[in-house]
Amino acid sequence: MIVEQIMKTEVYTLSPKASLNDALQLMNEKDIRHIPIVDDDEKVIGIITSHDVKNALPSCLNDETSCSIYDTPVENFMVTDLIFGHPLDFVEDVAITFYESKISCLPIVSGGKLVGIVTTSDLLYTYIELTGAHQPSSKIDIRLQDRVGSLAEVLAVFKEHHANVLSVLVFPDAEKKNSRIITIRVQMMNPLPIIKDLRKEGFEVLWPNLPGVNV
Predict the structure, then answer these.
(1) Rounded distance, CA 76 to CA 16, Å?
(2) In this structure, what DSSP letter does residue 69 have?
(3) Among 7, 100, 143, 190, whose CB has the most other CB atoms within 10 angstroms?
């Protein structure tokens, strides 16, 4: 999956001379937390976030005189050390960028122009959709030996039960170096027959670990 499939293309921007109050009003009206700041050539020169706005406002509350902080240009508060993405970047690469750089949004630029924006919320929504977690389903965690064919053997059990597999995720096993944890989300609300057959075949089911299911 690439970025252009998940990015928001309706991006609300401000000029660097717009006031802090303009940013606050735009965030409240559009229910957004990130505003790219663009110059006259539509080039992104900064970003202001709801966190930046909140950090700026307490200085007003501590001032006994009439405070003009709301009229201060956003260029005084915006972040200028930016990382950009491209519409053809892979979503996985963007997720790594978010994780390593500890950022909450990524302006998407093509041909030097702002064409979209991706936020942590977009990534979370994408993850939920890809895993099928938003659908009526059950999650089964299985410890597998790290060998060729082990996943196919597990999926054969699901096939025997005519179970519709929504997603398969593979994680490192923190307890056993030669194993992997496989999370399978299946479109059924009662996976107990599958769990019983998995254990009959010698697979270690970690979740759900329900009373009466062990064989």
Answers:
(1) 8
(2) G
(3) 7
CB–CB of 43/36 below 8 Å? no
Residue 69 pLDDT: 83
Report the alpha-carbon distance of residue 82 to residue 84 in Å, rounded.
6
Residue 112 tokens read as 């030097």
| Domains of the chain, residue spans | 3-128, 135-207
Instruction: Tell me the chain's radius of gyration from C-alpha atoms.
Output: 24
Output the six-digit token pair for 87. Answer: 């519409």
Q: Which two tokens stand for residue 151?
A: 């996943």
CA pair distance 205, 17, nearest whole angstrom: 59
- 135-207 CATH, one of 3.40.50.720, 3.30.70.260, 3.40.50.620, 3.30.2130.10: 3.30.70.260
Question: Sorting pLDDT into bands at 50, 70 and 90, what band is 66?
Answer: very low
Whether 67 shows a pLDDT value over 80: the answer reads no
Contact between residue 184 and residue 139 where contact means Cβ atoms under 8 Å apart:
yes
pLDDT (mean) for 27-36: 97
